[in-house]
Design brief:
With about 425 residues, this protein is of the alpha/beta class. It is built from 12 helices and 19 strands. A 6-stranded mixed β-sheet has the order 11-6-1-2-3-19, sandwiched between helices. Strands 14-13-12-17-18 form a 5-stranded mixed β-sheet, sandwiched between helices. Strand 1 and strand 2 form a beta hairpin. Helix 4 packs across helix 11, helix 6 crosses helix 7 and helix 6 packs antiparallel against helix 9. The radius of gyration is 24 Å and the shape is globular. The structure holds adenosine-5'-triphosphate and magnesium ion.
């Protein structure tokens, strides 16, 4: 039994969430969350670090709290990254198989993915993810895992996500100031997808929509693979602004009203029965007691949500996948809790919509089983996959080495070395 610790730091525009989980490499169990904390973020706007000192301070506060809860010092962590500086493209890779018997090994798959990675990229951008979508062996496509198959020509279609190097360097700077090693960036949309989407949805075609405080991250899946990802610079904070302007209250009060309203109205249709909500409980500094739910939802929140979903629809059109997403939208992130969101999104997009509540972990799950923490939990799940992949790559290398060293000969040396040559 080999226990591993995985840590994730979700650097959001509204909160920094830190998570520590334990998983057993050999057991088929969900990772167990042993430490968690969420701290309001500062110095981060629309997924971009705009003030390194403030951002570092809020990351430190969040990390400290999670460390105390877990009784573990975080030395390395997977880190979320998102926002409009993210862009994506699809790339193709091709290699020849020269192994004895033309059998395809794990390292051939690595080579072909590496070949797809060779794209011309501006010096200000960095690749953060290369997702293999489909493999083709000797012209036969649609293969998800070619290991063990036989062929002479291996091809792959990949989806590549890139990010602004400046922002990545700024995040690295915050982490290195805190003595934390970055184990890898994970795109927020991809992390959330890991925590909320089902395999069937991915197979049929679905769009993951993570509505955060300052941005919306999107991931499109089709035939089980990621095929498009993007981000829109708008989020829950804009709804809070509209409420503040509409009701003439401070941003703090508007945020409290928004969250209170969504908790009171789990269903948009209830607003007709609700009439007015009493805000006395919130003890706002403004002299505001009863507010018409109709005014709040129909006149203030709905127009902004309509604008948001029109922008999402534009992205769906840009992806060229309009007809390939029968499972519709899975909305997550804190913004998905906004009152009336399901009805408005269905009206604008014309596709099925559900709210994605993250799961697939055990332990301290009461507080975190909430769309607000979809990316946070996704960091653990994506991190686990990355660690397992690295482990199997290491095993496949030692297997090749073992086979090779079992009986030394010139021809064995030649075929061993050939596996590493594209
Ligand atoms: N119950 C709720 N009802 C309505 N809105 C909510 C609720 N809870 C949180 N939100 C909103 O969700 C947003 C924060 O979401 P989230 O925590 O997912 O963002 P983030 O990850 O910090 O930011 P980002 O992903 O944009 O960088 C805020 O605008 C907040 O007002
Ligand atoms: Mg987020």
């Amino acid at each position: 039994m080999k226990k591993q610790i995985i840590c994730g730091i979700d650097i959001g525009s509204s909160k920094i969430a830190t998570i520590v989980a334990l998983y057993d490499e050999q057991a088929d169990e969900a990772p167990k969350v042993i430490g968690f904390s969420s701290y309001p973020s500062q110095g981060i706007k629309k997924g971009l670090i705009v003030d390194i000192d403030k951002a570092t301070e809020s990351i430190e506060k969040s990390v400290d709290k999670a460390e105390k809860m877990a009784g573990y010092k975080i030395e390395k962590a997977f880190v979320s990254v998102g926002g409009p500086h993210i862009s994506s493209l699809n790339s193709h890779g091709l290699v020849a198989i020269t192994n004895p018997n033309q059998e395809i090994f794990e390292n051939d798959v690595e080579r072909v993915v590496e070949a797809a990675r060779a794209i011309s990229l501006s010096s200000t951008r960095e690749i953060i993810e290369v997702v293999p979508c489909d493999f083709t062996v000797d012209g036969q496509g649609g293969i998800k895992n070619p290991v063990g198959m036989t062929g002479v020509r291996l091809e792959v279609d990949t989806h590549i996500i890139t990010a602004s190097q400046t922002n990545l360097k700024n995040i690295d700077r915050c982490l290195s100031d805190l003595g934390i090693d970055n184990q890898g960036y994970i795109f927020c949309g991809l992390a959330s997808a890991e925590a909320v989407l089902t395999e069937t949805e991915k197979e049929l075609g679905v769009v993951l929509v993570d509505i955060g405080g300052g941005k919306i991250d999107l991931c499109f899946y089709n035939e089980g693979s990621l095929s498009y990802s993007s981000s829109i610079p708008i989020g829950g904070r804009h709804i809070t602004n509209d409420i503040a302007v509409g009701l003439r209250v401070s941003l703090d009060s508007a945020e409290k009203i928004k969250i209170y309203l969504s908790k009171k109205l789990s269903d948009y249709s209830n607003k007709k029965k609700a009439g007015e909500i009493n805000l006395v409980e919130l003890k706002l500094p403004e002299d505001l007691s009863d507010v018409s739910v109709k005014t709040l939802v129909d006149e203030i929140i709905a127009p902004r949500l309509e604008e948001i979903f029109k922008l999402i629809f534009d992205e769906i059109e840009k992806s060229g996948l309009v007809k390939n997403i029968p499972s519709g939208l899975v909305i997550t992130g804190g913004g998905s809790l906004t009152a009336g969101i399901i009805e408005i999104s269905k009206k604008v997009i014309g596709l099925p919509v559900r709210i994605g509540i993250p799961g697939r972990v055990s332990g301290l799950i009461d507080e975190i089983s909430n769309p607000v923490y979809a990316t946070t939990i996704g960091l653990i799940l994506s991190g686990q996959k990355k660690m397992e992949k690295e482990g199997s790559e290491l095993k496949s290398f030692s297997q090749i080495w073992h086979n090779f060293s079992g009986g030394f000969s010139f021809s064995r040396l030649k075929s061993f070395l050939k596996q590493f040559i594209p």
